[in-house]
Write a structure and sequence with these properties.
Elements lengths: L1 E2 L4 E2 L25 E9 L5 E9 L12 E7 L6 E2 L5 E7 L7 E9 L7 E4 L3 E2 L4 E3 L12 E9 L12 E5 L5 E5 L5 E3 L3 E8 L3 E8 L2 E7 L5 E8 L3 E11 L4 E10 L20 E4 L4 E4 L1
Parallel strand pairs: 6-13, 15-21
Antiparallel strand pairs: 1-2, 1-3, 3-4, 5-7, 7-11, 8-9, 8-10, 8-12, 12-13, 14-16, 16-19, 17-18, 17-20, 20-21, 22-23
Length: 296
């Protein structure tokens, strides 16, 4: 067993009986140059144990431990600089160290509303963990529709720490769905004239709008313009109509609105039945102040 200040490395563990022979040979060039304590533990067939120890200084191995380069390839919910609706996002990263075989032993995450990190709104402190992901819980915070910047520091197996990442990575949390307004007609109404439908969609992170007439897609546009407006019409033909609008934002929030109406501009048809055709031979009209009387 080689012991250093923070680690134990088991070089070999064997039950083979050896009398005055070679126990183990290892490649010392794979270890960093420093002082080590080499410990030999043995046990005989009766369970008796003995231990011997010798201190050595390794000079022909790797250079002394160097601080890790840091955390790279930063992601939030698997994306770079995303707009999300999740108030418990997962931050992930990769640990980079110039020393072969070294590994992460701890990390720290800080979040700020500015790239100078003059005001820290969230700080994990030093978390002892080899995990390279962490779930933030931002539900207790009043969140604004603005970038939240984050940075990460890591420690290696020798407790050497890196600098924080540059702090230019960010995420935006948007929990609001788009707002859709349809005017120009009311739901379940009958109209005797041409109709113009006005559509308005509002969302600070708007991404896409779709418009359907009678379940047929007539408009599909990717847009960040807010408010997004569109006029349909005039709609002139008689018939039953269903106008449906769907909207999506960059945080995957969705909304939809629909109205149904009828256009019927045709004149009523009047049919008189049960009376035979007659010949008008004499017609007199008597007008009074109250009514007009016609007689055949």
């Amino acid at each position: 067993v080689v012991e250093d200040r923070t680690n134990q490395i088991i070089l070999t563990n064997s039950s083979v009986s050896i009398v005055d022979g070679v126990l183990y040979v290892w490649n010392s060039t794979l270890f960093t140059n420093r002082e080590y304590s080499l410990v030999l533990e043995v046990q005989d067939i009766y369970g008796n144990r003995a231990e011997d120890r010798v201190n050595i200084t390794l000079t022909g191995g790797l250079p002394a431990n160097r601080a890790p380069i840091g955390a790279t390839n930063l992601r939030v919910d698997g994306k770079i600089n995303p707009v999300i609706s999740n108030t418990k996002p997962v931050i992930s990263w990769e640990f980079v160290d110039i020393d072969t075989g070294d590994y992460q032993s701890a990390f720290q995450i800080q979040i700020s509303t500015n790239t100078q990190f003059s005001e820290i709104m969230y700080d994990t402190g030093k978390v002892i963990s080899t995990n390279k992901s962490y779930t933030l819980d931002l539900t207790p915070y009043t969140l604004h529709l603005a970038p939240y910047y984050y940075r990460i520091k890591v420690w290696d197996s020798f407790d050497a720490e890196s600098d924080f990442s540059d702090g230019n990575d960010w995420f935006i949390i948007d929990t609001e769905s788009p707002v859709i307004t349809i005017t120009g007609a009311k739901d379940n109404e009958i109209y005797r004239e041409d109709i113009i439908i006005e559509i308005r969609v509002e969302d600070d992170t708007l991404d896409k709008v779709e418009v359907y007439i009678n379940n047929t897609l007539i408009v599909s546009t990717n847009t960040t313009l807010t408010p997004y407006t569109l006029n349909l019409g005039p709609i002139t033909e008689d018939g039953e109509y269903r106008i449906e609008v769907a909207a999506y934002d960059k945080a995957s929030n969705t909304a939809s609105e629909a109205i149904n109406f009828v256009i019927d501009k045709s004149l009523p048809e009047i049919n008189i039945t049960g009376v035979e055709a007659v010949s008008y031979t004499h017609l007199r009209a008597h007008e009074t102040s109250l009514h007009l009387v016609c007689r055949l």
